[in-house]
Amino acid sequence: MPELKATDYVMLDLALIEPNEGQLQDEGLPANPREILTHKYELLKENITNYPHFLKYNALKVLPLDNGHYLVIGGNMRCRALKELGFTKCPCAVIDPETPIEDLKAFVILDNASFGRWEWSMVANEWDNAQMQAWGVDLPILSNDVDIDQFFEENAESDNEKGDKIVVELPVDADKDCIKAII
Questions:
Q1: Which of 34, 84, 89, 171 has its CA 20 to 30 A from that of 40?
Q2: 104 and 52 in contact (C-beta within 8 Å)?
Q3: pLDDT digits (tens, 9 = 90+) for 9-51
């Protein structure tokens, strides 16, 4: 196992930080593959405004460029939001410029990957749904197409030790008030 070393965290001027738009495409690092959804972006800006101190625990991951600027490897959306909100500096984890392109590609994806799953019963019983949505969590909804009583009657004698599973398709542009009423 490789030895872990302390990362250099520094406050950088946001004017020196560039989003990954494919500047290193010729070297093999594609542009950031994430789509920025308007409603999620607005939630991000609201959360940065409400919890700016969180940024020191979730710094931008940046790579030094030859021109004295830095390329965002992790945190493109945060960087854009910070600039729009009028921030001038941001905590950054500076990636070693000798890092191989294949590692940088992995970092781009790993920074955006979700390795866990929500334990929905805990979310429902121990967390406030409105807060979870305000923090950007997409909560599941039930469709009117599901007859819950019929589902449980049909599966009442199931010998599945893990319980029954309901698969629900979630619309991206769902009306939250309507969803709450259905639930």
A1: 89
A2: no
A3: 899 999 999 999 999 999 999 999 888 889 999 999 999 999 9
